[in-house]
Amino acid sequence: MRHPKGSYILGIDQSTQGTKALIFDAGGKILARSDLPHGQIINDKGWVEHNLMEIYYNTLQVVRDVVQKAGIDRSLVAAVGISNQRETAGAWDRATGEPVCNAVVWQCARGEEICRRLEKDGAANVVKNRTGLKLSPYFSAAKWSWILEHVPGVREKAERGGLCCGTIDSWLVYRLTGGKEFRTDYSNASRTQLFNILTLKWDEELCRGFKVPSQCLPEVTDSNGFFGETDFDGFFEKPVPICGVLGDSHGALFGHGCHERGMTKATYGTGSSVMMNIGESPVMSPDVVTSLGWSADGRVVYVLEGNINYTGAVITWLRDSLGLISSPWETEFLAREANPEDRTYLVPAFTGLGAPYWNTKARASLLGMSRTTGKREIVKAALDCIAYQITDLIQTMEEASGIQERELWVDGGPTKNEYLMQFQSDVLGIPVKVPEAEELSGIGAAYMAGIRAGLYDWEEIFKGHMTSCFQPKAKPEDMAELYMGWKEAVAKTLAGKSR
Q1: Residue 29 lies in a domain
Q2: Which 3 state secondary structure label does DSSP give 437?
Q3: What is the CATH number of the domain that holds 77?
Q4: Is the residue at 346 inside a domain?
Q5: Beta bridge partners of 49
Q6: d(Cα 489, Cα 487) in Å, to the nearest integer?
Q7: In 3-state terms, what secondary structure has residue 32?
Q8: Closest residue by Cα to residue 9 from 391, 432, 451, 355
Q9: How far apart are CA 371 and CA 387, in angstroms?
Q10: Strands 408-411 and 264-268, bridge-based pairing
Q11: Does the pLDDT value for residue 303 go beyond 90?
Q12: How far apart are CA 87 and CA 210, in angstroms?
């Protein structure tokens, strides 16, 4: 399936806050982007929802906008790739395509009681051993279970085979293909807590445990498979294939070019996702989760992943709650001006600690302050704690996989902070690589589609990436001492003690 040299790839990145469309040229360069936010529906219980139809209509609009902004001939769009927020659970009528309720967002923990019941029945180990995931309302299964249990008429519709339960990728595929295709890819399926990552099939026993009929779930397709065709509700004269679908973190791993066993990326956002490619065989760990990175041409790639609650959000806390800074850009200057001998540690357990500690009851602490500790030292401790948490996860993954990390690929807003990137390299003792391109999730899905469409070559398309590289500069023994202090601070925080 070869296309003219002037062909383009359309990328859609549907995230928690909004939807963006990207146009890529024949060399994989982004020519234009268009964004639209969607509403965050939050009630007094803290439940978080999204309007599925708003997301769909926004997708159509950003596609129209980006094509016009790029000034391209829409008939030369060769293929579509989709990256998406993961775990968010939607449910809609199979015949009409109308949602039966708002989507339950990944942040929403309303399925907590369902998980407690399953844990009481002894299901936690079964879930972990088959899906690679800790039993948690974070994942899609408990959210669908809640919908089926609480939304009137939905259970009956499901039992008649008239309900679709899908993540955001399968929702967009369904709507964009006019209801002809109900598909998800392996990366998204592996985050639902209903997909057996060993057999590579929906797990009937888990479906029964969560009371989600497997007939409601989408067909699982290679990440570079054929997901149907779309004309974006008549905007294109001829339909184009959707042939690249990836969850957002998986898209970033692929977009970085981390295609070989042992290659790792860290996405620095409000929280952070650290993901390591562990090859074609799964590795289970009690401290991080195991998922599918992608499946391409029938070959699956497994990953280890850990998620951190507070990384970029720590910088927001400095600004909004403490008033120590007015802009995130101030943190770099302040950290460089701080007393290098100060040993203040911030453990940002504002809502508990995520992987690898898994302690929801822990609360944040500032430890090791002296009389001379001031604003600069607290800001420095806030930046340092981001690097320490990333290091915690990478060391955990190294121990679980037996792989010694050689370099770390990074993306996200905080990677513009050169102090943080240099400290990250120093504490890890390995190079940290920051790509010039920012849209790594969208790049991953678009490149996957472009490779499938024959427009891009798998090896060549990643060679043109421009990166900055931070090399370790500090003495290893000094960094080992600092990191040991961090581990002691975490231990005291978890014990409820202060230094």
Answers
A1: yes
A2: coil
A3: 3.30.420.40
A4: no
A5: 41, 104
A6: 5
A7: strand
A8: 451
A9: 25
A10: parallel
A11: yes
A12: 15
Kindly indicate the confidence band of residue 405, based on its pLDDT and cuts at 50, 70 and 90.
Answer: confident
Give the amino acid at 170: S
**Among candidates 43, 48, 209, 219, which has minimal Cα distance to 142?**
209
- pLDDT tens digits, 73-93: 999 999 999 999 999 999 999
- Structural domains counted in the chain: 1
C-alpha to C-alpha distance for 150 and 412, rounded to whole angstroms: 37
Cβ partners under 8 Å of residue 255, min gap 6: 437, 439, 440, 441, 442, 443, 444, 447
Burial class (CB in 10 A: 0-12, 13-18, 19+), 238: exposed
Residue span of the structural domain in which 13 resides = 8-247
Dihedral of CA atoms 93, 99, 101, 107 in degrees, nearest 10, equals 120
pLDDT band at 4 (very low <50, low <70, confident <90, very high): low
Cα separation of 229 and 304, whole Å? 32
For residue 464, which of 70, 85, 29 has the smallest C-alpha distance?
Answer: 29
The C-alpha torsion from 419 through 424 and 427 to 432, rounded to 10°, is -120
Would residue 384 count as lying in a domain?
no
- CA pair distance 199, 254, nearest whole angstrom: 23
Are 147 and 216 contacting, i.e. CB atoms less than 8 angstroms apart? no
CA 407, CA 265: separation in Å to the nearest integer? 9
10 Å Cβ neighbour count for 359? 13
User: How much is the average pLDDT of 6-29?
Assistant: 92
Q: Would you say the C-alpha torsion 175, 176, 178, 184 has a positive or negative sign?
A: negative
User: How far is the C-alpha of 323 from the C-alpha of 413, rounded, in Å?
Assistant: 20
Q: How far apart are the first and last CA of the chain?
A: 64
**CB-CB contact of 410 with 268 (8 Å):** yes
For residues 10 and 19, give the distance between their C-alpha atoms in angstroms, rounded to a whole number: 13
Residue 343 lies in a domain: no
Q: What is the mean pLDDT of residues 304-321?
A: 87
